[in-house]
């Protein structure tokens, strides 16, 4: 039987990789001519300055509001859409084409349309986040339901199971791994949409910090703002992974 590494070994490897990364970053930032790459220590100092001044907390709060207003509806809409596509095959075949197009087309192209429709505000950023993430949630939900074994449904029908029993006892538990994977991937896409929207659309949030630092060539603050965005993404995605582990403990 394969031995599972202890959490001490896992966290030790993660810490060693992180230390190595910051050491290489520090060395690269101190090389002659590395003007656009600040050292890790300078980035950490800028991060602390933004944090203590309150600018980083205010920017994270603004971006988080746009993120929640966009990604929450993406999940609430994407899962029912995927279920409806699976329950109504003609609708699924038709809608799948549009989902594939939505996932393939560069979504940054929709930003000018959003500006014309909603203007420059938090709702516009939330709409961009929604458009970036919802197709992936719906597509994974649709694929997860279709992957459920038809034999389970036939057996349930043989025992006179109702449609709601088939939905909540068979289809949703069977599709849950792919649904949660779609939510996790949708989260990553939602963060991309948030950055694109705040850099190209709305002058507020973390995008404002990044754009202001870039315009003044303050690369320490720019990298610190990007680091804050990366940390927020890691925390949120890690939380979803832990939730996935709890909900799918039966798969171990």
The gist of it:
This protein is an all-alpha fold and 252 residues long. It has helices spanning 7-29, 40-53, 55-87, 89-104, 111-118, 122-146, 150-158, 163-200, 206-215, 219-247. The longest helix has 38 residues, at 163-200.
Description:
The chain contains ten helices and no strands. The protein has helices at 7-29, 40-53, 55-87, 89-104, 111-118, 122-146, 150-158, 163-200, 206-215, 219-247. The two termini are 15 Å apart.
Question: Which properties best describe this structure?
Answer:
252 residues, mainly alpha, MetI-like fold, 81% helix, 0% strand, globular
What is the strand and helix layout of this fold?
Layout: H1 7-29, H2 40-53, H3 55-87, H4 89-104, H5 111-118, H6 122-146, H7 150-158, H8 163-200, H9 206-215, H10 219-247
